[in-house]
Amino acid sequence: MDANLIRSQLADALPRCVWPGRDGAGPHLMRRVTPPNEVRVIFECHPTVLCAGTAVFNSKSMKSGLKDYVVVFADVAGSTRLYETAGDQAAKVLIVDLQSEIAGITTAAGGFVQGVVGDEVLSLFDDVATALSSTFAMQETTDQFSARRGTPMSVRIGLHHGPTIVEQGRVFGDTVNTAARMAAIAQGGQIIASEDVVKRLTDPFK
Fold first, then answer.
1. What is the pTM of this model?
2. What does the DSSP assignment read for 60-81?
3. 3-class SS at 164?
4. For 155-166, what is each residue's pLDDT tens digit?
5. Which of 57, 108, 110, 160 makes a 20 to 30 Å CA pair with 51?
6. Confidence grade of residue 47 (pLDDT, cut at 50, 70, 90)
């Protein structure tokens, strides 16, 4: 895709967006997915200065009921190939360790770690700004983790904002399903935000 076209599409989507890209020139809009009644913007996000994650997997409790949350799925991409190349035990250790660091980012930011499902870490946040900052940190931490462990790894992240049902520590509803679809669309190293997230952007994100 032509670079000027990418910049034009990005300007149409978020005209005042100042998220840093890998080259410092802003985020890279990879493509736009436009299913009926919803626009989803896909970014390749590699921020420069972010909060540090910890290796603590621990979540504060969520109150049962219906509440608006930002739901985030962070999925370790390419795990099948990793198991094939590194072996079962080594791959499992790498994935679990990376998931622990991702979960630590959520808890350090005051979010909720609902759990780990397969290769995915499911997190909930009270506000969009904290959720976005945390997803940036997850990508940055993954890059650092890969360099530190000597194994290329990446995560694909999807997030959506909306009413979420919480019952006995579990989460349900269309918001969760939509966030999962965002992550499924993403490629490794990408963050996909739904329109409901984008329209709630506030300074310094707009």
1. 0.72
2. ----SEEEEEEEEEEEEETHHH
3. strand
4. 999 999 999 999
5. 160
6. very low
